[in-house]
Amino acid sequence: MLLDVRITLRNRIVGFGSVLLAVLGGAGFRSFGQAPTQTQQLQTTQAPSGQPASAQSSTAPPGILPQQAQAQRGGLTVVVIDPAHGGTDPGARGAGGMRESDLVLDYAAQARKSLQAQGFQVRLTRQGNDNPSFDDRSAMANAQRGTVFVTLHVSSTGSPGTVRVYTMTDFPQAASAPGLIPWDRAQAPFLELSRQLGNLVQGQLTLQFKGSPNTVQPATIRQLRATAAPAIAVEVSSILVEDPAELGRMGTGIADAIARGVAAFRPIYDASAVPGTAP
User: Fold this and answer.
1) What is the pLDDT of residues 231-254, one digit of tens each?
2) Which of 37, 95, 101, 141 sits a CA distance of 20 to 30 A from 279?
3) What pTM was computed for the model?
């Protein structure tokens, strides 16, 4: 289930020193003010309904330097996998007490093995039943060089047995201080690369799961907004299946599709001279 975020983003820009230290240290940036509940955040016609979640709060740096995005350049070697929800936020719930947070953790473990078989290093934003903040999850990708970010969800809507890939919607034009990118717009320079990654992964998923879309779809997704790397969300349908084993059996195909899609994206990433632009 993708996350429905209703939040007022701050526009102030922080100085080079504090931001650079935060990014290089992989600091745990947290949600702005009273954090959004982790509920469905799609704004497309296929947006599934959300589930309430625990609030997260504190303050996040609202600006990054373009040079920090540039630091992500180099060969693609790292994939950050984000199993959504966790802790006090189980996400969507299905029959027999099935929880989205448990399913995506299992999917992430399988994706990790498939990606490692393709030669990638893999980082998981959580490996147990904890609930990192949205910005903690993005910060893990931002602290890496040569990385992409994949967040995993299970929807409460959609045709059972299908999988959809989403990328962040286009960002409206916004004025900012010279030489700085607002923290909440970190994904903006990477939108085109994210779409290319999304289409490659979606193509592999469509081969595995009939009825899935052929191309990536845009949506407003909190985990992607502050990620300074190509980033996609993968959403599986549906938590409401009568037999929970059906969703479990999808794990191998999902992992294989993600690994194949990211491997196909690697030469595109490596050839791109500027973050967010096609080669």
Assistant:
1) 999 999 999 998 989 999 999 999
2) 141
3) 0.75
